[in-house]
Amino acid sequence: MASRLVRHHLFWPLCVLAALLLFNLLYSPDFFSIVVRNGNLYGSLIDILNFGAPLMMVSIGMTLVIATGGIDLSVGSIVAISGAMACLTISKSSDQSSLPLVFGAVLASIALSLVLGLWNGALVAAARIQPIIATLILMVAGRGIAQLITSGQIITVSSDLYEYIGAGSLASLPFSIFLVAAVLIAASLLTRKTALGLFIESVGSNARASRLAGLRSNTVILSVYVFCGLCAGIAGLILSSNVSSADGNNAGLWYELDAILAVVIGGTSLSGGRFYLMGTVIGALIIQTLTTTIYMIGVPPEITLVVKAFVVLAVCLIQSESFRKSIAFRWAKRKYPAEQEAARHVS
Amino acid sequence: MTVPSPILQMTGITKAFPGVKALSNVDFRLFPGEVHALMGENGAGKSTLIKVLTGVYSIDEGKVTMEDKTISVSGPLEAQKVGISTVYQEVNLCPNLTVAENIFIGREPCKLGRIQWRRMNAEAEELLKERLNLSIDVAHPLQSYSVAIQQLVAIARALSISAKVLILDEPTSSLDQNEVKQMFAIMRKLKSEGLAILFVTHFLDQVYEMSDRLTVLRNGELEGEYLAAELPRFELVLKMIGKELKLLEELPKLSTEFKEEAGNKMITASGLGRKGAIAPFDLAIRKGEVVGLAGLLGSGRTELARLLFGADRPDEGTLTVETTGQTVKSPRHAIDQRIAFCSENRKTEGIIDDLTVRENIILALQATKGWFRPIPRKKQDEIAERYIRMLNIHPGNSEHLIKNLSGGNQQKVLLARWLLTEPELLILDEPTRGIDVGAKAEIQKLVLSLAKQGMAVLFISSEMEEVIRVSDRVAVLRDRRKVKELGGGQLTQQHIMEAMAGG
Amino acid sequence: MFLNRKYVPVLVTLGLLAAMFAAGSLRYTGFFSMQVLYNLLIDNSFLLITAVGMTFVILSGGIDLSVGSVIALTTMVCASLVEQNGWPPAVVIPMVLAMGSLFGALMGAIIHYFRIQPFIVTLAGMFLARGLCYVISIDTITIADPFYTRVAQTKISLPGGFVSINVLIALVVVLLAVYLAHYTRFGRKVYAIGGSEHSSLLMGLPVARTKILVYTLSGFCSSLAGVVFTFYMLSGYGLHAMGLELDTIAAVVIGGTLLTGGVGFIAGTFLGVLIQGVIQTIISFEGTLSSWWTKIVIGLLLFVFILFQRVLSERRISIKS
């Protein structure tokens, strides 16, 4: 029983999250306190959920892409583009809070994100360019596009309705959390209640065998990149609406890296195959909590990067089977490096 | 004149991998100025022996001597240093570098640390011309030349390291006839210059054309060393497969009667072929009929099957699925027309490692339904349970990851995957390899009962008894060519082997 | 005459550069001058040095995302040691170069021995170096050391204008790199590994040592670029060279180097950097166009070149089979 618990894929991520939270509790006892103000809940925990929402969103999309054995480096740029697009549309109007306007703006952003996702997917699936390279293009150009939309300025909007997406509350909780929950549930349903999840894992685990089993892997790959674009687009809306402004230069900076990290912490392997949406969400929460923690103990928040560096390495080393094996193997066989190689392939 | 002494001698070589004894107490010797063919079927230990010789694998027991000195090589570099070089079928050079560089990389002529390109190119040109009769522009990248020339460059590299022993591992597999001739001419030239050549090939014709001596391995053991001139083809095949002539009596045939006009045609291939894979062939498979494919390893069995399934594109000929009147464009297209293909490469082309037994079973069926119409979980469980019971899959838990199952059970899961799609033509490529005897019989019986229900089956196996036992008709392949079709009273081991060995 | 195919991508890049420069010269008065050309070098000398290191990494089939951060860290360490602790530059500069090289060597060792994708390892390196900047200080540290200011202000006259010392350093690096890539065994091994790591191993090349050296070289180049950057900016700051890794990779790819490794030239990278510079110059001359167009155009060029490479390699495969 205990060993089954330990082996559950959420066990280690949850442990890390719990440890982080415990540290915060010891460090500042009122960390867990949640107060009700104006009928809304406030507190560090709520903040973590609220500020972590965009990252969770992006990471959900990234999970599916990584599950197919790919990667999407352009999510940060899509976040910026989507926010910029929405803010631009809204800022041009005199009545910034009108429902059709905000609705239209959101729709335009989402449509644009879908197109960008489709672009990535087409490069990977149809043009058969390596995912890292294919999405690098949009990663570079996307920042420019975002700045083009904002004309290099920070566009501020004053629209209560738009602000609601990222800063509003529903049932005393931040609205963005509900958005994340909705996308998470949608993604879970879409992958687990249809055969899409099976196809994604199959293609990611063994593309050649999948082809021989009759799977149309191109469609699968295309759709995950489109979905990833959608998630990044929604994240961009949340992020820009939270601060009521769009910054083409800095919005969504480092998001691709944080999202990849969240996915890996969540237990999905970078080489594709089995994916864990819930694990990813916890991974994103760990990253957000880490940022909050470092902020709280008074260290400059930028130092989070140092911690992240070690987390990335540690997680990858633990995940990398060759690391574990090479340590065991290195002692047994010091000569014949190629045999070591062969043994790795056999097992 | 004294009897020449072998340049290379391996004695009592034993090598075990976890769970498998790849080589046990194998002897091997190689004389200067001879071409020596190393023969054996799958799992015979050929590639392990070569890897031991080139220092890729260590040896557990035994010793290797080269020119009467005991040597111990622990890597390709050291093997080269003692004078053993290998040229592989998939040329192991760098396609992006120039021809000259590929010959000299790591040992470029240098002056004060500066590579002397001109000298290097001149030396490369001379080497190719002098020893291989090849004049090409050595300053061009290797990838701009054909595979045949790339292989010659690889040989040139070996020669420039002053190789005394040259291992040619299936050098002719991807060459056309003229290129093979060119290669042979060069092998003869090198032989006359005193080089010892270890030649591995699946083409029997080539073995007899080129080699002076043969060593046959079987199941990791030495079957014997023979002079090529003294060993008839037929006996060679017997030795490779492991039979004595007297034991070639008839086995009880499971397949009930020979059906002259069994059922309607299911699939017809006429003049179907693919360059470098299989020469154009005709083949028709009828409903309710089991057609066997016999041939040695590398004779083109898998290549033929892949063409029928649309996994590879043919260069010529037509393929018609008679039930639909269409051809086959892709695996998916084949599956839609009720064709199933159980690949021999279980690991790379069969199982999906990360998925469970249940998911692996339903995968192909789900693929035909598309992602939007999932098979309900309850039905999936039922299906998995049914096939686990029917095929006796161990462990009988449908939620186990398939990678944790034994090879035989993985095979059964794949069989279940394809049976589930209710195919009208089932292509089984080595379905019983690595499976215990009991399971083997089960699969054979299953094949027959499926045929009885009207399914057409193409059965590929390197075990001849098995092919004969289940098939109504057997197509025999040799050297990438369909050479014979046997049925009825002709369907005996003797006949098949004669066809496999050729004239 | 039959043109050697391997030079095609570089020639395309050269043609593009010439066309852009010509277009700029036709359109803007004052564009066609030696000083504009020199300024391209002055403003991009650090990028050039980094890109040279990156070229070797990409040629070997890897990637190095840490370059921008290593530059920032170098400026930070230099500034803090020279300004705040009063160390002489003669000690500090060799020290940071050694530090950068060691950093690269460590990443290379992890990549090779633990078989983790270079992308991930250098990503961690990027986080680490960037984070360490802030451990030193979150603010800009201005450098007022006389040695630095003298180097920064030195102008070397050339016909038609002047260049800075940085440019000389960068050009020396480029020349050395060309020599290293084409006339030493190390350089050829890098190409070999990028062409096929498996084959290189079977041919008996020291793959481990070469791969680690490649990342060491990239670390060295990044820290040298960092030193050059301090001469250029006269400050150390954790936000310096933000996103430079992307510019660097783009320059290398536009220069005709195959992202999958094994094919490319240092000269191509040199041209790739100049193309980026010309785009910036054109945009600044245009006045109404804004800086983000640089990114969009570079992204577009990346797309074209990657697709171009894809088609070339596709054709290669079809020739083979």
From TrEMBL, chain A:
Keywords: Cell membrane, Membrane, Transmembrane, Transmembrane helix
GO cellular component, one term: plasma membrane
Topology class, membrane: Multi-pass membrane protein
PANTHER family: ABC TRANSPORTER PERMEASE PROTEIN YPHD-RELATED-RELATED (PTHR32196), GALACTOFURANOSE TRANSPORTER PERMEASE PROTEIN YTFT (PTHR32196:SF19)
Subcellular location: Cell membrane
TM ranges: 9-28, 48-66, 97-119, 131-150, 170-190, 220-239, 251-268, 275-297, 303-320
Pfam families from the UniProt entry: BPD_transp_2
A GO term for molecular function: transmembrane transporter activity
Protein name per UniProt: ABC transporter permease
Keyword Membrane: yes
Species assigned in the record: Cohnella thailandensis
Keyword Cell membrane listed: yes
Automatic annotation (TrEMBL), chain B:
Places the protein is found: Cell membrane
Main location: membrane
Top-level lineage group: Bacteria
GO terms under cellular component: plasma membrane
CDD domains per the UniProt record, alphabetical: ABC_Carb_Monos_I, ABC_Carb_Monos_II
A GO MF term: ATP hydrolysis activity
Keyword line: ATP-binding, Cell membrane, Membrane, Nucleotide-binding, Repeat, Translocase, Transport
Domain ABC transporter: 8-244, 258-499
Signal peptide: none
UniProt topology in membrane: Peripheral membrane protein
Gene3D superfamilies, sorted: P-loop containing nucleotide triphosphate hydrolases (3.40.50.300)
PANTHER family with a match to the protein in the record: CARBOHYDRATE TRANSPORT ATP-BINDING PROTEIN MG119-RELATED, GALACTOFURANOSE TRANSPORTER ATP-BINDING PROTEIN YTFR
Name listed for the protein in its UniProt record: Sugar ABC transporter ATP-binding protein
Organism: Cohnella thailandensis
Classification lineage: Bacteria, Bacillati, Bacillota, Bacilli, Bacillales
Automatic annotation (TrEMBL), chain C:
Cell compartments where the protein resides: Cell membrane
GO molecular function, one term: transmembrane transporter activity
GO cellular component: plasma membrane
Keyword Cell membrane included in the entry's annotation: yes
Record flagged with keyword Cell membrane: yes
InterPro entries per record: ABC_transp_permease
Membrane topology: Multi-pass membrane protein
Transmembrane segment boundaries: 7-26, 46-79, 91-114, 120-144, 156-181, 212-234, 246-279, 291-312
Protein name stated in the entry: Sugar ABC transporter permease YjfF
Organism of derivation: Cohnella thailandensis
Organism lineage: Bacteria, Bacillati, Bacillota, Bacilli, Bacillales
Gene: yjfF
